[in-house]
Model the fold of this input.
Amino acid sequence: MGEVKHLCLVKFKEGVVVEDVLKGMTDLVAGMDMVKSFEWGQDVLNQEMLTQGFTHVFSLTFAFADDLATYMGHDRHAAFAATFMAALDKVVVIDFPVVVAKPPPPA
Amino acid sequence: MGEVKHLCLVKFKEGVVVEDVLKGMTDLVAGMDMVKSFEWGQDVLNQEMLTQGFTHVFSLTFAFADDLATYMGHDRHAAFAATFMAALDKVVVIDFPVVVAKPPPPA
Done:
């Protein structure tokens, strides 16, 4: 069993300062060793029919499924999640073991 | 400007053989050099309130935004996308430059 990802697609409520949310998330995961890496992004193609209003992606990577479970059950995650969810108009969350079907070429 | 990801969250129609779709996508990207890597996964936590019925994630990584544009405009992508979309009950697609907020630790 390899890496597991915790992926959130979100649409923020109007008036939310996305930079503040990002800072909160970055600070949170910086202090939590069970989070192997964290990347995010903002949609750039704006194909409304396909994005369905979702604008941002947040992706946490864990080396093991147990690390994800530890993270999800952690008080600091619970506290942040409450604030995070309150800032969202829409959200979809998927947790999945990563299957690499085409690996990147050697660097 | 770094990597760009093309991310699809999907819910398949009933009766769709997911393995066939996966094989089609794997074959497609294996033959297209502008696709740097391809990974996918199936949701394992089944938190219906959070997944909203989405079950699978497909993530293509491109080294440059131009590679994504070339891929999106390619005949082979168009042909596959038509078949792929027909197999879906729901889909959200997001295209985003990757911001690495917490890099993975050195191997």
Q: What stands out?
A: Chain B has four helices and five strands. The domain at 4-97 of chain B is CATH 3.30.70.100 (Alpha-Beta Plaits). The longest helix of chain B spans residues 18-30. The mean pLDDT of chain B is 94.
